[in-house]
Amino acid sequence: MTEYRRSKRRQVPQVVEVVDTMTEQVVGRIGNISETGMLLVTGHPGCDDGLYQLQFQLPGPQGVTWTVAVGAHQLWCDLTRPPSIYWTGFRFIDLGPEDGDRLRQWIAQPGGKFV
Questions:
Q1: Alpha carbon distance 44, 72 (integer Å)
Q2: What 3-state class would DSSP assign to 85?
Q3: In a domain, 17, yes or no
Q4: In a domain, 94, yes or no
Q5: Could you read off the pLDDT of 15-29 as tens digits, one per residue?
Q6: CATH number assigned to the domain comprising residue 71
Q7: Is residue 100 part of a domain?
Q8: How many other C-beta atoms lie within 10 A of the C-beta of residue 91?
Q9: 6: confidence class by pLDDT, cuts 50, 70, 90
Q10: What are the tens digits of pLDDT across the range 33-65?
Q11: Using one digit for the tens of pLDDT, what is the confidence trace for 55-99?
Q12: CB 3.0–4.6 Å: which of 17, 37, 51, 78 could bond 91 by disulfide?
């Protein structure tokens, strides 16, 4: 299988919930993430080609977390097994410079598993 992604995607082993900041509702959890996008595991398909304002907290060193806010574009969505679970691909279209730097550092930390 040929890999076409430009950025490494790091698996997120712990539960990192993602909130839609427009509705203030949890929409899913991160499956994997890169500096340019993420896979969201969710219970609903979302809106094809939809634009979202999302927020999540990533764990940092010594138990410190930080909040990352992104504008995201939903690129695709697949229903998985068991039924009612969706994998949804997002591309980040707006990520502040400080959040981008922290995200790159978090992804590059030793011990991560990549997909």
A1: 17
A2: coil
A3: yes
A4: yes
A5: 999 999 999 999 999
A6: 2.40.10.220
A7: yes
A8: 15
A9: low
A10: 999 999 999 999 988 899 999 999 988 777 788
A11: 999 887 777 888 999 999 999 999 987 778 999 999 999 999 999
A12: 37
